[in-house]
User: Fold this.
Amino acid sequence: VLFFLQKDPDYLKLWLDSFVSSYEQFLDVDFEKMPTRVDDIPPGISLLPDNILQVVRLQLLQCVQKMSDGLEEQQQALSLLLVKFFIILCRNLANVEEIGMCSYINHVITMTTLYIQQLKSKTKEKEVADQTPMEEFVRHALAFCESLYDPYRNWRQRIAGRFLSTVEKNRQKYKPASLTVEFVPFFYQCFQESEHLKESLKCCLLHLFGAIVAGGQRNALQAVSPATMEVLMRVLADCDNWDDRNPEEVSRKAELTLKCLTEVVHILLTSSSDQRQVETSTILENYFKLLNSDHSALPNPRRCRQWESRFIALQIQMLNTITAMLDCTDRPVLQAIFLNSNCFEHLIRLLQNCKVFQGHLDCLAVSTIQALTAVMHKSPAAKEVFKERIGYAHIYEVLKSLGQPSRELLEELMNMAVEGDHMAVGILGISNVQPLLLLIQWLPELESHDLQIFISNWLRRICCINRQSRASCVNANMVIRIIETLNSHSLLHCTCAENLIALLGSLGSQSMGSEELLQLIRLLRTEEPKRAHPYVVPVMRAILAMARKQGMASALQYFNLYHSMAGIAVPSIHKWPGSAFSFNAWLCLDQDRVDLSTTSKSGKRKQLY
Assistant:
């Protein structure tokens, strides 16, 4: 058999045809599909004819040498068969390391580079069936690379929405082959002057990059370089210029690029500085620069209504990706990097600049609030930074300048307050009280009475859900903010006003200062002495509710030890008045708030000792 394989190419082709036909089910070259489950596996290299890999290598080398003069149809078919042969062998994961150590991949990349150059040089008139063999080879070549560098198809699973834990990855027995040094130049060159390269092929290239990054940390850190990051940013910037390309393919290209960037950020977080070629802060700097691109510098033909719509759609995708980036195990570290990248200023500037666009403003505002929430999620430091650098008064003015808000935007502010789903009242308490103050202030400006009633009813429930929530609202001076809003009673629906007064009564039973009480009484004054203010009855009920003792007796002043880092610090020993001192306190354990994070396996348990 070996003699015939070496001396007779036709016999080799016949043998390869038979082999590929027997294991054709392993040729799943479509990156968009999950790998098919097959009970059988291809044979190990030791079970193949002796020296078959050497024969195949020589044939592949001959194809490479003849590429410059152009391959005949028979040679094209042979080169494709050889690549299919390698893909099938790599689906037996025990073969991956040995095949990766040989020069096959470099020969395949050389041929793929030449084919892609030819595909890029084709004009629209020549886009006919003669491209099909070249495209087929390129797709199979990229799938061969995936088989080497992501043998367990981690990337395909990620694309399908299944996230592998670190434990699951560590259980993967076989490691990916070492990444060839040819990959980065190949990837960079493929996207140079690629206007005529099909969007579907660009998507395949992005899939391969994502597969390399998801396949293993060692290869990922080699692939994530200044050159590849430049390519991803350039591809992303090109996604707002669709010309006559398929909008769905362009949108998919943007989505894949953003998923690649998310994977890159996550892999960089798990590496040390001496391993990285690019810092996360550099990626974020370029990312925000693109997000806040100055559209006014564009030529007038591109600044059409259709382009605006596409550009805003891209911005919304980029904002949603920020949330995906921050969904990781090292979230506090990444939050600190985002803060150092001045992300708050970039996001607010985005809202300010978007006022020049005509449509989709509300969708952009919703995505921006989601991104802000993600950066501040469970981080007191990030909340303080936002409060100092931007301030909620400023974001209120910016949001108000966009016009009447939609229900979706107001609900997103509610989500920001509870750092989760606002409908989960009873499960989630208040994590950030500032958006609630903003909502109360916005109520008189809302033209929709239905929205006024909806928000005020929700505020009444969430702010009074437990002692912790009431204390947070009182400490944030919500009582004064409610009274200021009630002063605009002509703009408020009566049900909305009653909800606010009921909320005021509940908060007042927790704590009510003399100045706040004075402001409340002044609220009831009318210009006509003989005419009673419409709020008299509900306000009197609220005052009675404050005076009435509800529930068990409890202290009005106490230490709040809810936060995971909260505690009581005692004076250092040398400041003690004697040889020791005692500290006595009642302990109150609220059980009416369940924190989902602390009930998970990785959650922390409070200890009393």
Q: What stands out?
A: The two ends are 78 Å apart (CA to CA). The first helix runs from residue 2 to 7. Residues 404-547 form one domain. Residues 596-602 have pLDDT under 50 and may be disordered.
